[in-house]
């Protein structure tokens, strides 16, 4: 019964959403995984996947086709071991906020990981330490100001997980079930800290969609109205999620 109610509300919310420009309806996580990051993969590149764990962004088919070498870094060795066989050439169990790389990566990918670290500045030091001069860093993260991020910080962990997985069972397959802290997770903070760590901005994409409120039309409408008001006051920091591409300075 609950699933039927959710499906109906999602369908109605999606219908209402179609009146908005496409840029306000784009899903950030999907756009990053399907468009932004794959466009950065080059033949024979050394790729670091930071926090990918059991779900690395690079597929085995992409790795073989381009001759990539992929290094997986994650806080949990068990998560790394669950990744599809042979995707990771090297697995490193480490806390990203303390980890220091070799400065040899052509591409560093950090997808939906920054929100889960307690020290955002330490995480950026770890990220920048992995990439070589002229190399590229690609990041996707929710914003600290996102409505769902605010709720995430308020609700008890057990309550959040029960609600999330009851309404969206598929969320358990990604990073959504892990505790989130959103330290230094505003776009303005990301740009500032990246610059401090020798990373220059190449591309910024802001996204104004998240799936959490589509399951109940009144909540969806209130959320969309709030986004419009917040954007007037907070600008880019009002975005729900964002993707960045940086280049390590020579």
How would you describe what is shown here?
By secondary structure, this protein is an alpha/beta fold. The protein has a single domain (22-163, 179-212, 234-248), classed as Rossmann fold, CATH 3.40.50.150. The protein is 38% helix and 20% strand. The longest helix is centred in the last third of the chain and has 18 residues, at 217-234. The model has no long low-confidence stretch (mean pLDDT 92).
The total count of helices amounts to 9
Order of helices and strands: HHEHEHEEHEHHHEHE
Total beta-strand segments: 7
Q: Helix/strand-derived class?
A: alpha/beta
How helix-rich are the residues, as a percent range?
25-40%
Question: Which regions have little confidence, pLDDT < 50, spanning 5+ residues?
Answer: none
| Termini separation | 58 Å
Domain module tally: 1
Q: How would you sum up the major sheet? A: 7 strands, mixed
Quick one: CATH superfamily? Answer: Vaccinia Virus protein VP39
State mean pLDDT (0 to 100 scale): 92
Instruction: Please give the radius of gyration in angstroms.
Output: 18 Å
State the CATH architecture. Answer: 3-Layer(aba) Sandwich
How much of the sequence lies in strands comes to: 15-25%
- The neighbouring-strand order within the major sheet is 3-2-1-4-5-7-6
- Per the CATH scheme, the topology name is Rossmann fold
CATH class: Alpha Beta
Shape label: globular
Structural topology:
Elements: H1 2-17, H2 28-36, E1 46-50, H3 60-66, E2 69-74, H4 77-81, E3 90-93, E4 105-111, H5 120-130, E5 131-142, H6 147-154, H7 157-167, H8 187-196, E6 199-207, H9 217-234, E7 241-248
Parallel strand pairs: 1-2, 1-4, 2-3, 4-5
Antiparallel strand pairs: 5-7, 6-7
């Amino acid at each position: 019964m609950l699933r039927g109610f959710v499906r109906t509300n999602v369908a109605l919310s999606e219908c209402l959403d179609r009146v908005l420009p496409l840029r306000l309806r784009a899903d950030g996580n999907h756009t990053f995984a399907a468009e932004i990051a794959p466009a950065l993969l080059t033949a024979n590149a050394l790729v670091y996947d930071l926090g990918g764990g059991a779900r690395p962004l690079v597929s085995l088919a992409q790795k073989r086709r381009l001759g990539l070498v992929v290094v997986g870094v994650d806080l949990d060795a068990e998560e790394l071991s669950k990744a599809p066989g042979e995707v990771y050439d090297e697995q490193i169990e480490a806390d990203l906020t303390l980890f220091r790389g070799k400065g040899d990566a052509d591409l560093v990918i950090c997808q939906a990981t920054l929100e889960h670290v307690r020290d955002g500045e330490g995480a950026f030091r770890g990220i920048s330490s992995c990439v070589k001069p002229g190399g590229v860093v690609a990041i996707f993260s929710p914003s600290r100001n996102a409505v769902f991020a605010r709720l995430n910080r308020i609700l008890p962990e057990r309550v959040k997980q029960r609600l999330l997985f009851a309404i969206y069972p598929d969320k358990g397959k990604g990073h959504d079930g892990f505790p989130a802290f959103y330290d230094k997770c505003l776009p303005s903070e990301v740009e500032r800290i990246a610059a401090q760590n020798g990373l220059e901005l190449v591309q910024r994409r802001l996204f104004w969609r998240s799936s959490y409120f589509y399951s109940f039309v009144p909540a969806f409408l209130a959320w969309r109205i709030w986004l419009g008001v917040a954007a007037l006051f907070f600008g880019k920091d009002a975005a729900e999620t964002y993707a960045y591409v940086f280049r390590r300075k020579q």
